[in-house]
Specification:
The complex is a heterodimer of chains A (275) and B (514). Chain A is built from ten helices and ten strands. With 275 residues, chain A is α/β, with parallel strands linked by helices. The two termini of chain A are 27 Å apart. The chains are: A alpha/beta (275), B alpha/beta (514).
Amino acid sequence: MNAPGNSDGQGNGTAPASEGEPIVAFENVERRYDDVVAVGGVDCRVEKGSFVALVGASGSGKSTLLKTVNTLVTPSAGRVLFAGEDVTQMQQARLRRRIGYVFQGIGLFPHLRVGENIAIGPRLAAEPIADERIAELLELVELDPAMADRMPDELSGGQRQRVGVARALAGDPELLLMDEPFGALDPITRDALGEKVRELHDRLGLTTVMVTHDMAEALLLADRVLVMDGGAVVADEHPRALLSGAGGDTAQGLVSVPRRQAEKLAVLEESRAAE
Amino acid sequence: MNEIGEILLGLGDKFAAHVVLAASAIALGLVVALPLAVWASRSQTVARLSLGFASLVQTIPALALLALFFPILLSLRAVFGEDLPTLGFLPALLALALYALLPILRNAVTAQANLDPGVLEAADGVGMTGWQKLRLVEAPLSAPFIMAGIRTASVWTIGAATLATTIGQPSLGDPIFAGLQTQNWALVLAGCIASAGLAMVADALLSVVERGFANRNRLMYGIGALGVALGVGSALAYQMGGEDEDTIVIASKTFSEQYILARLIGDRLKEAGYEVSYRDGLGSAVVHNALASSSIDISIDYTGTIWTNQLKREDNPGREAMYSRIVEWEREENDIRVLGRLGFENAYAFAMLEGRAQQLGVTSLVDLAPIAPQLTVGGDPEFFERPDWEAVVDTYGLQFEEERSFSPTFMYNSLRSGAADVIGAYSSDGRILAERLTILDDPLEALPSYDAMIMLAPSVAGDKKLTRTLEPLIGAIDVEDMRRANFSVDREDEQKVSPDVAAERLSEQIGLSD
């Protein structure tokens, strides 16, 4: 049972906690909405070059935690460090341009061409990129460079999210944040795009934090899985450790779903073969 | 149809004034509405308050809104000084801009509220500052909706701008109001055609801009915007070229007699070498204030009207005393010069059919008193509420069997149909001639006098050449002359003439031209 990017990924096979240089550090991060605690005291680090999945049920606080990094959400208490600096003390727009952000809503600007969408970050930073670079980015996500001149509404959902990934990569980000990036896609597109992202992560030496509710996706793509429940991180394990029963009840509950499905499929296959 | 064409061709200056007024009002509305919409998109309270206010404004009839700015600006003179105009362009601009506010604001707020939250999150995510987000995302995505609001506002404003005529701002309402009063339907139609045509052209051009925004077609919205800019620009240029400081502005209120007298005065001034323009169809209260502020230069007013409305007096000191007190008061209070009386009155007067009066042996109000309990009296809707009526009732002890209100046209018909025996007519009305009415004498002078006077604004009060030119009119027009002239304009048969022609004829009649 080997995840595709897991066999040679960094930090694989050793204890996930503090190793290497942290690019993100959560220090007792809390976020409350009135009386509701969305995130309650998270304390952990993300090393450079790692691919971390934040997994949990709806309302577990995973998305809120992710958004504290690019300050779409501000912590009620505690702090978040990006490359050693408190994110709330940094200039917001400049911070966000250093971080690629891909989310379920995709949010392509409907009035801008695909190429303009991809180039928006560098343009905002007054470092516009050339058409060749746009073509290169489109090729990275396996799209025809000629698509640069299309409008977003001429694209399929999967193509649009590929453009979303290309846009996030355009500014050579130090960190890639993904919030349920494949949530709205069909299973085949979802699978293909997931593998593509993992491949790009390895090829470009990215640091990636991905929020997902799908444990199978997390196990197959990430080299470290944080399981969240009720606003707290309840497990922090390698995929392989999770599969061998580590991480406690909540984590094992989530792992059991794809495992049972796989077992059922295997049984089905055997019975077919026996016929 | 030819007549309408000719009138349309002569409407150039009104058309230009209308375009400039409407465009300025929409521009001002935009300048207020857009920042307000941005603010409203960031604050629920602002959204509620601003939309509530704009909706409230919308419930005020446009005519009332225009009129309301007169007292508002008058009270603002305490802050901005006496030079603040209270009539004409400024109040029209402010009222129409307020009126244009709602459609623009509502569409802008709705557009912002309906922006895809994903797109807004992406704008934050890629690191846009608040300003960049507004300029690069919110504005272009809201633009088609805002343009739709601007289109609605334009059509409304161009229509409502015709009402600016009533507060002394030239517009395409001038021919409409003038036509309504003199029952010159060609004039009304020409004004309506011009204003409706303007609204349709503006709407078409703006719809091109709107579609350009929606399809992100720069050429399209460029062409539309260019069309609008050219239209407004040439109207502005036309106005700049036509505006002349030395032009004498003659006002008229909303009835035929006023139009005729304005032309009579205007013709004389033109002959003497003056540039003349007419500000027709002004409300009665507006005329006096416009005169005092020199927004207009000359008006015709009536002693009884000034006595009640300006001096706020309810007594009746008699014809001569009233006149001399008014002359004195206008000079002291307003620097207005009363040049003199034209010679006729336009007063309330009790009238009967000639035959009926003879049959009953009535020649004066004294004769009427004993038989009044058997008679029905007719009046216009306000007649029975006026001090004039009360004065007559008290003085002569009149007690009629019935009092009936009619619109002025039906009031005159009522005598012939027998619906009324005696009516409160207007003494210079042409229909007194046409219907062969007898005016009953008022020996006890119970009815206040309404002598027609030429009034000069402070701006021209000292102009010797002008006063010399107009002095021959003093005492020159008797009530028969005026009735005949009024009737020639008010009649509805083949012999109906325009106020211009009536003024020429009147001038000949009184021996002032050949």
